[in-house]
Design a protein that fits this description.
Elements (H helix, E strand, L loop, with lengths): L2 E3 L9 H5 L4 E3 L6 E3 L9 H10 L5 E3 L6
Antiparallel strand pairs: 1-4, 2-3
GO molecular function: 3 iron, 4 sulfur cluster binding; electron transfer activity; iron ion binding
Protein name: Ferredoxin
Function: Ferredoxins are iron-sulfur proteins that transfer electrons in a wide variety of metabolic reactions.
């Protein structure tokens, strides 16, 4: 699984960081999403899927055809 973020769409809600802190972080300067692990480990798949679902701006997406 691969994941990507669009900082231009991010609204800085931080939901992704709460759900999957091992994969996402927030920039200290502007509060926007930072992708820590573009290829999350298999054990994080469910949390990443949830982060995609709860992102109010739709700034997180899967980049491979295989989704969890």
């Amino acid at each position: 699984m691969r994941v990507a973020v669009d900082r231009g769409r991010c609204c800085g809600s931080g939901n992704c960081v709460v759900v999957a802190p091992e994969v996402f972080d927030q920039d200290d300067t502007d509060g926007l999403v930072l992708l820590r692990r573009p290829e999350p480990p298999p054990e994080a798949a469910e949390r990443v899927r949830r982060a995609v679902e709860v992102c109010p701006a739709g700034a997180i997406r899967f980049t491979s055809t295989t989704q969890p």
